[in-house]
Write a structure and sequence with these properties.
Layout (H helix, E strand, L loop, with lengths): L2 H17 L10 E21 L2 E21 L4 E14 L2 E15 L6 E15 L4 E17 L2 E17 L2 E18 L1
Antiparallel strand pairs: 1-2, 1-8, 2-3, 3-4, 4-5, 5-6, 6-7, 7-8
Length: 190
């Protein structure tokens, strides 16, 4: 019954304990924790096709972008982490979230700040109706680039995309995808 939370608690504790010896020493190697916020533009597209014809309908909304990551620096230039990157926005007078949760990696061009970096993530992408906690999910990816302008502080630009549903009703195929572009300022503790 409580097996899953217990497993996450144990794994999280192990990660924290293993990283303590190399944490918060101004070197990217070792334990890494990141928090960020900014602006995101979220887009939802539904494609309908029947026979040889089709139509796409898209809606876009802007909102608050968030970023969370926890993991480890393999060395001073390569980080591997679990990440959750979301855009929260209001549509139809309700709160929605769109983003990715999964395995991410960052590569910094220099071993210390200031440095440009590139990042990518693969995982579960989705569109979530927050108030009812209903979600359409599917495989997603994120690509981004940024600049660490001083130790622990970054500005990032990222793009996310996921295919979150496909179904056929009355011989009409419906495909749904979500994407967003985000600009965030992040605190990256290492």
């Amino acid at each position: 019954m409580y097996k899953r939370p217990f497993v996450f608690l144990v794994l999280g504790s192990m990660l924290l304990m293993a990283g303590n010896a190399a944490a918060f020493d101004k070197e990217r190697r070792g334990f890494v924790l990141g928090l960020g916020a900014g602006y995101g533009s979220a887009k939802q597209t539904v494609s309908a096709s029947s026979g040889g014809s089709g139509v796409d309908v898209s809606t876009s909304s802007g909102g608050i972008a968030t970023d969370f990551r926890i993991g480890s620096g393999i060395n001073d230039q390569f980080l591997l982490y679990w990440t959750s990157q979301q855009v929260f926005f209001s549509k139809f007078e309700t709160l929605w979230a769109q983003g990715i949760g999964g395995l991410g990696a960052s590569y910094f061009l220099e071993p210390a700040a200031p440095s440009f970096f590139f990042e990518a993530a693969l995982g579960l992408g989705g569109l979530i109706w927050v108030e009812e906690y209903e979600a359409d999910t599917g495989f997603g990816f994120m690509l981004g680039a940024g600049y660490e302008f001083s130790p622990n502080w970054c500005v990032e630009l990222s793009y996310f995309h996921a295919s979150v549903g496909s179904e056929t009703e009355n011989m009409v195929k419906l495909d749904q995808s979500v994407s967003n572009i985000r600009v965030t300022v992040s605190w990256l503790a290492y």
